[in-house]
Amino acid sequence: MNRTCTHLLLCAATLAAGLVAWAAPAAAACNITLRNVANVSFTSAGAYPVFAATDTGKAVAFQVRHPNNQAACNYFVTFSKGGSATYSNRRMIFSGTELRYQIYNSAAQTAILEDVPDAAAGEVIAGVFTSTALVTHDLSYYVSIPALQVVAPATYADTVVVRLYEGTLSSYTQRDSVEIQVRGKTVATTQVCVGCVASFDTAAHSHELNFGTLETGEFKTGTVRVRSNDGYTLKLQSTNRSVLRHTSLNSAVPYTAAVNGIGVVLTGSQAVQVAHVPGVTTATGVAYDVQITVGSVAGKLAGNYTDYITVTVTGY
After folding, report:
1. Which structural domains are found in the chain, ordered by start?
2. Fewer CB under 10 Å: which end of the chain, C or N?
3. What whole-number distance in Å separates Cα of residue 2 and Cα of residue 4?
4. How many CB atoms within 10 Å of residue 301?
5. Which contiguous run of DSSP H or E holds residue 91?
6. Cβ-based neighbour number of residue 254 at 10 Å
7. CA dist., res. 250 & res. 112, Å (int)
8. Radius of gyration, alpha carbons of the chain
9. Using 50, 70 and 90 to split pLDDT, how confident is the model at 44?
10. H helices of the chain, where?
11. What is the rounded CA–CA span in Å between residue 275 and residue 273?
């Protein structure tokens, strides 16, 4: 028994010695870390304006730290798809509704940042630590929300994983990762423009219907547009209760009004509701054609006649 045991131990020792003899020397690790990687928020004063004509974006700073007495090394930083199926369709979500956004290498938006194994050169944030000393690199990326996404008031969110790799895209080892939230808030917004026919013009708040010489049955139309991400009520009110009054003499010409072909009685002292629309419109809004038709001008005094119709839009 003793001879057999000795033989087994001797074989084991020989095998172990053989394994050590063939092992390759381990490469020195570059134990780099991510620092100050924070959530990205378009909220509060920086809430996303749903009707702004330009994209909303911000540069986001973070750091990569190289500890003291570590090897010099290459590194790169990547960003996951978040909850999306593709990098090109990153989106924040609230209750099934999406707010699209994108993560770029810079404000120039020349490249979308991706993760391995999908990323190509230029689609990661790369750098080099050239010494063994304690060094911190200040880096940044850019988050952009495309313009004119008209979505309901809410806070939309997505989760993205930021990963730090030692090496290059052809050979790498993950060294650190941080999960961040990308959040975008939208607030209730309702806008109206008057006299804007083809597109929405936020500066258009009045429009003149000039009939020239009044004739019985003559009509003219002015367009009112309303857009909202939370619903609205549209009301009209006539200053002179549906008559054109002489500017200096006691004479008046009656008229009738219609909105999108439906008659509206403006003879009362209160504003008349002509639309009550819930939910979200398009960025160009909903058009309301207000048609004014001149009544009888028989026996009316010569001169100028006017009335003012006030358009009031109230958000939900």
Report:
1. 28-186 (2.60.40.2040), 190-315 (2.60.40)
2. N
3. 5
4. 12
5. strand 91-94
6. 15
7. 70
8. 35
9. confident
10. 2-22
11. 6
